[in-house]
Amino acid sequence: MPTTLEIKDLHVSIESKQILKGVNLKVAQGEIHAVMGPNGSGKSTLANTLMGHPKYKVDSGDILVNGESIIGMSPDLRARKGLFLAFQYPLEISGVPLAQFLRSAYRAVKGGEDKANSPAVKGGVGKANSPSPTGVGGEMISALAFKKKLEEKLKEVEMDPAFSKRYLNEGFSGGEKKRAEILQMAILEPAIAIMDETDSGLDIDAIRKVAEVVSSMAGPKMGVLLITHYQRILQYLKPQFVHIMVDGRIFQSGGIELAQLLEEKGYEWIEKEAVPTAS
Asked: Taking the CA of residue 200 as centre, how many other CA atoms within 13 Å lie in the half-sphere pointing to its CB?
């Protein structure tokens, strides 16, 4: 069965101010959903709440992965459930090489799979449900296997291998930071990828490249919840479902034609229509 992320009547506040006012949405592996809306409509609040950011308080409602509530789970446990969040503003972390960060993240999220697929297990040294080989030998097997995986994924996202030796996002341009986020996504292979305005601050060429890479990863094994303010990225990453968020609610849902309508008319008309609903 495909992994499903279901949001049920979600109400969320920040410092006692209610931001989300009853969001309902369901995303499954293999689907691409776009959530659009004007500034301040609650899009980034939704993304951060889904991954368990402690700043956001769930007042009522639920978030389910395969029918199991993840309310109260820490972000790392949510990641192990198959969720991933690409940040709108990725942080710079000095002293931590990108490759080291990616390997630590991979082992934390995919540790069980890493053991089952390691050369030692396949060669009969261990069993899939036994601990990873310990000591220098086991560590080298794991390091070499990950190095190969990282090299493959760097090619997929068309990123210079030299970036893997640089500190995480330090000195990266806006486009390079977003590409590094997509690299993390490629490494972790989440069931549901949440992308919080990944296109913000990028020129059209960078948007096209990011969208092409994400589009190549989306499919039966990965669903995408793309949060965006603009229609332009949707020209390349074509969603089956488009949702318009206004004043903390999903006001209207449809297909790609809804995003095209927003491109033509802007958000003012839909905000006026939403006033009776939001009042």
From this structure: 16
Q: Are 187 and 157 in contact (CB under 8 A)?
A: no
Dmax of the chain from CA atoms? 66
CB burial of 249-263 (b: ≥16 within 10 Å; e: otherwise) equals bbbbeeebebbebbe
Neighbours of 150 (CB within 10 A): 20
Mapped onto helix, strand or coil, the DSSP state of residue 209 is helix
Q: What confidence score (pLDDT) does residue 23 get?
A: 97
DSSP conformation letters of 132-174: PPPHHHHHHHHHHHHHHHHHHHHHHTT--GGGGGSEETTT--H
Amino acid code (one letter) for 130? S
Structure tokens that stand for 123 in this block: 């060669």
Spatial CA neighbour of 20 closest among 246, 243, 226: 246
Structure tokens at 144: 């070499």
Give me the numbers of helices (H) and strands (E) for the chain, helices first please. 9, 12
Nearest to 70 by CA among 215, 161, 248, 191: 191
pLDDT digits (tens, 9 = 90+) for 238-262: 899 999 999 999 999 999 999 888 8
N- to C-terminal Cα separation, the chain: 40
Q: Which domains does the chain have, with CATH numbers?
A: 4-92+172-278 (3.40.50.300), 96-164 (no CATH)
Which residues are CB-contacts of 40 (< 8 A; sequence separation ≥ 6)? none
Confidence of residue 46 (pLDDT cuts 50, 70, 90): very high
Report d(CA 94, CA 277) in Å as an integer: 46
Query: How many other β-carbons are positioned within 10 Å of the β-carbon of residue 86?
Result: 24
- Residue 8 token pair: 């049920």
173 vs 4 pLDDT, higher one: 4
